[in-house]
Amino acid sequence: MKTPTNLFKQGLLQGRAQVGLWLDLADGLSAELLAGIGYDWLVIDGEHGPNDLRSVLEQLRAIASAQASLAGLSTQPIVRLPIGETSLIKQYLDLGAQTLLIPMVNTPEQAKQMASAVRYPPVGVRGVGSLVARSSRWQAYPDYLDEANEQVCLLVTAETTEALENIEGIASTPGVDGVFIGPYDLSVSMGYPGQTEHPAVQAAIETAVKSILKAGKAPGILAMNEAQACKWIDLGVLFVGVGVDTIMLTSAARELLKLYKSGA
User: Which of 2, 48, 214, 254 is catalytic?
Assistant: First the structure.
């Protein structure tokens, strides 16, 4: 058996815009449900969601279950780590994650470290434990060690003014496949807390997106309304988050309550 092709990474290389959702409920059942809807990708959030290795594993299995049972759907999982740390990266890759999103990458040096951490030697420093890990399906993929580097996808997050000052260097780092712009953290860093649509924040994001594209890499962003999502896709952003499970559930529950309870 051949190591599975990373369809999310393949889409980035083809220049195809992909839309997805954030998973912060940290629950396998909701992950399986949403994996059956048809989004291109789902981010399992280990930074702000209450996730650990075992809950991420549960959700990876749930998404894989939806892929197997629903013909024609191939929603891809992305795992956002709590921090970019080499030993932690190794553990999540050994769980079988192929695409990782690393938060708070502010310098090209950090980006280089992350690119090394996700790949096996001689190009990287990833520790070899696939013989006993889900990543190789316990050796069911006999050439995993030779194929893994090609299928891994590294996304780094630029979400501070420091990161934007270094955006060209970060995006140009070999081994970085995409750069995600974190609009909320960026708005705070710029002095406009939560004002993601402030003209200064929007201008900074536009400049960053153009720099990422110039470097030949894939830009990404979280857009919480249709107008913003369309704007970024038109600008060339290739992976756009269009919703968060917790916000979607809360919003739908409130709207339903309004039908039956005045003043809700």
Answer: 48
Q: Residues 6 or more apart from 39 whose CB is under 8 A from it? A: 19, 20, 21, 75
Is the model's pLDDT at 26 over the cut of 80? yes
Based on the residue annotation, tell me whether 198 is a catalytic residue of this protein: no
Contacts of 69 (CB under 8 A, 6+ apart): 36
Q: What is the distance, to the nearest Å, from the Cα of residue 197 to the centroid of all Cα atoms in its chain?
A: 22
Closest-CA residue to 46 (of 58, 29, 37): 58
Q: Into how many domains does the chain fold?
A: 1
| Beta-bridge partners for 155 | 101, 178
pLDDT band at 263 (very low <50, low <70, confident <90, very high): low
At 225, the amino acid letter reads: N
**CB neighbourhood size of 103 (10 A):** 20
Whether residue 144 lies inside any domain: the answer is yes
The reported pTM is 0.96
